[in-house]
Amino acid sequence: MSSQQLVSKPRVNSAFKQLMSMHWVMAACYLVLFTTGSFMARLPREIFMRGELYDFHKTMGVLVMALLSWRILILLQVWWRKYTKKLPQKFTPEWIQKFLVHTFLYLFMFVVPLTGFFFSNSYKSNNVRFLWITVPDLFPQNSDLVDLGRSLHFWIAYTFLACISLHIFHQWKVVKALWRRFQNFLKPQNLAKNKLRHK
Known about the structure:
Layout: H1 3-42, H2 49-83, H3 93-123, E1 129-130, E2 133-134, H4 146-170, H5 172-186, H6 188-197
Antiparallel strand pairs: 1-2
């Protein structure tokens, strides 16, 4: 085995690990987005906290768009290294189904926050902030499009949630294995071992 091969293999593993880390970070972010979005939409307009929740929700929306851009760059890096050497041997129905589900997931990861921008920008100019920074408008203010923006954001978000459910169903064995690992981690004897390791 050449020294070049020895050097390149850890980088592929490293990129894949980065991709999986991004997967879980973004999953957590979208969980927060869905939770806050559902909660704040039910709050009466008079409640002061509602505006704070909207700002937090928008900040998370900007964050997931930035993370998605980074994730796509890592994904392209992994694909380039994997498929420049060898294309998939067989485009089986299972491979095609998996490819289509992931394509839709990535599409929705982009479109859901984008429709959020459309909704916010249509309602008011300079209406999206990331922490204390005002994000430039992607769409012009237009009060006639507010209801359209709200409907698009709502329905596309819940279609995305349906796709996530389908993805979880396809990866059910992985989900069960991760759940078992998490339960083992929470067992008192394992928690004690982890504390000793970190001392």
